[in-house]
Amino acid sequence: MAKGQDLRGDLSDKDRGLVELVLDYKDRFTARRWIYEREWFRNILFYVGQQWIVYEEGNRRWRLRNMPNWVPTPITNRIASTVNVIRSSVAQVHPAFQARPLQENERSVLTANAADKYLDVIMQESGFRAARRRMASWVTLTGNAFLHTEFDTSADTGTVDVPGEVCLDCGQQMKPQEIPENLLCPNCGSGNLQESKELGETIPQGMIRVRALSPFEVYVDPFILEMEDQPGILLIEQKNTDTIKQLYPDTGTEVTADNEALTGRNYLNSLAQTTGSGFNSGAPTGVSPAVEGDGAATIYRLFVKTCRDYPDGVYVVMSGDQHVLEAKEPYPFRFKATRRPFYPVVHVLYDDVPGRFWGKTPVDDLVPKQRQRNEMESLFQTITMRCANPIWLVPTSVQTTPITGDPAIVVRYSSASGAKPERIAGLEVPQSVLAFIQQIDQDFEEIANTFAVMKGKNPGSVRAASAIQMLIERGFGRYGSVFDNLEEAYERWAVQALELWRQKAVFPRVQAVARVSGAWQFMEFLGSDLGDVDITVEAGSTRPKSQAGRQMLVQQLLQMALLNPNDPEQRKAIFEEFGATSLLAGAEADIKIVAEENMMFMTWAQEAKAKVDEATIAGAPGEAVSMLLQQTFPIRGNAVLDHHPTHLIHHRRFALTEAFRALPQALQQMFVMHMVAAHYVPLVQEQMSGMGPMGLAIQANATMMGGPPGGPQAGKNAGGGPRVGGAQTPFGQASPNTPGPTSSQGTG
Question: Does residue 188 sit within a domain?
């Protein structure tokens, strides 16, 4: 039995064992945590502007230093400005997830292809982006943060009416939670089941959530370096008793408030009421109750994969007054495919310390420098106030008017003795003090790697964008281990989140996704549809990139012909990088038109396939069937209004889809011929003539009217190049291989 246990006398044997387990891990994990917690709390105090502080070993608390009233205590918070630069670099990281199959089968491959969309749904539902921002603050200031993922089944997530089942063969009645996964009657094994609203229940929909936890809330064995090797994970937080009763209506009704004296919790509650102007109640730490007021109760969450008393592991939620709110054994957090257990808590480190579980932050090294700077500023102000002002020497034999520090003062004195008042200039502040302050500022940038470019300042004489980008990349290269730790943490979180969502999300989510055809499609995402998949973060995606650097990359890719500016999507992305999307007013309209054409063709093709099958069965000749298809072909191009590169690109992407390739070959050929006649040929004409679509249409119209248009001579191209096919092909004239007219709207 652990020290300090005070077990309630009315506990059952089972609950008594669980309470003993939680308290045992609590005593083990809280031992000597204060040596880390004092540094974490100190860093945050320095960040908010509480810097003239001292630590009391006996009380394990920080307090204000006892300073004489005449001693200045200035603070130029270099730590806050430095932390903001580092935190913004960490917070702006947007991991690019990549999925790969774990098994060599079609389901795993399809799951990998769809995993990106599932992760989008999960990140939107869980609040991952907000948690990532909060995590960046904790990891920058303390060197440690945690991402806790759970599936919330409270009523706040919404409810769904789920019917029960009745076996029509044996009459077995099943409530929703009693229905087996194989949908077979557990009594007779029959699959002849019928829904029953009378047996139905209102079930919470559930929602996956991710929280950013501080190191003050997570307790581990500090001698075990890896998170997955920990004998257990203990989360300690505080909740209002009313909230606990709502979350645990069956087991939490008797929970009462407590004053758990944990230093970490007291630090957190002190921070909630600590500002740069003072501490809460004059003391920022650990000796006052964790939460002021009534209704606050401590909640323990213990994750144990395996131990002596629970070889299959256990998950326990217990209140501070020793009420077991939830208990699950065997350990519930396991990968379904391998049954391997995992902790749904991911450790995020700023920088590793060899042989230590807890990470390190540059703020640890900046605190002494900030203290030095504060003391030098205090010395500067003291010299200025007490020594820099001029003084008057007045002989005792001289009678003078009162001497003040007012400007333009007139001093009247008697000169009978020959003596007179004398003014002596004050002392100047030694230049060594100012030089030392400047050196401290330089040390800040060197320790934190926050050079001028990262702060948006021009680095001296450097003007070229390439050189500035090189400086930025060189600077961020010193953060390599930080970004590697972030990538590893995001990978673990994504894998765990996908697994929890796959097991727990029994009700579908609906989200709009972009189709290859260019249109939007509302898709259902169900957890059980996910197969085995592994998630990685694209290498380098967590490295911050400057806007100038991204623009340089775009320019280089264009010069190397690795980007196609005629691709409307790539063109849009290029304009977004340069902040000039207002110049693309008509691009989205072009894409929308092509998407509508693709959908019109697919609808027509599916209907036409059925008609062709009927006509073939009826023995209709092939010429008649071909004529029928040509007459009803739904797409008609417009030579003047259509943007041919956009049509060609999006038509091609549509033609590469599985749905298109499943159509009969004749229908596919008709669509391809439309692409050639309505868009490819006109595009070639534009490029070879040097004229736009409007100019070609005017020229074609004049030719058909029997006279040359104004401008170029009749029979010659404007650009001097050869004609397509040796003759000018008027827009709107159907090619012999075209399924139908290429323009029914005129040519201008």
Answer: yes
pLDDT at 703: 55
What distance separates the 2 farthest-apart alpha carbons in the chain?
142
Amino acid letter, 204: P
Residues 259/290, Cβ–Cβ less than 8 Å: yes
* Alpha carbon distance, N-terminus to C-terminus of the chain: 92
We report the CATH number of the domain holding residue 175 as 2.20.28
Q: What is the pLDDT of residue 523?
A: 46
Phi, psi of 660 (to 5 degrees): -70, -45
- Report which of 678, 602, 610 is spatially closest to residue 634, judged by C-alpha positions: 602
Fill in the amino acid letter for 322: Q
For residue 526, being part of any structural domain is answered with no
**Residue with token string 């205090």:** 378
Count of beta carbons in the 10 Å neighbourhood of residue 65: 10
* Amino acid making up residue 46: F
Tell me if 433 is assigned to some domain.
no
pLDDT at 105: 59
Q: Is residue 340 part of a domain?
A: no
Q: Given 204, 219, 234, which residue is the final one in a domain? A: 204
Range of the domain at 666: 585-726
Alpha carbon separation from 597 to 332, 493, 602, 626, 633 (Å, rounded): 50, 41, 9, 21, 11
Cα-based distances in Å from 418 to 395, 412, 414, 415, 627: 10, 14, 8, 5, 130
Instruction: Read off the pTM.
Output: 0.68
Q: What's the pLDDT score for residue 600?
A: 85
pLDDT at position 29: 94
Q: Which residues of the chain have pLDDT under 70?
A: 1-6, 101-116, 155, 276-294, 405, 450-479, 506-534, 538-553, 566-573, 575-588, 615-622, 624-625, 690-748
- Do residues 102 and 533 touch, judged by C-beta distance below 8 A? yes
Domain count, the chain: 2
Three-state DSSP string of 195-229: EEEEEEEEEECCEEEEEEECCCCEECCCCCCCHHH
396: helix, strand or coil: coil
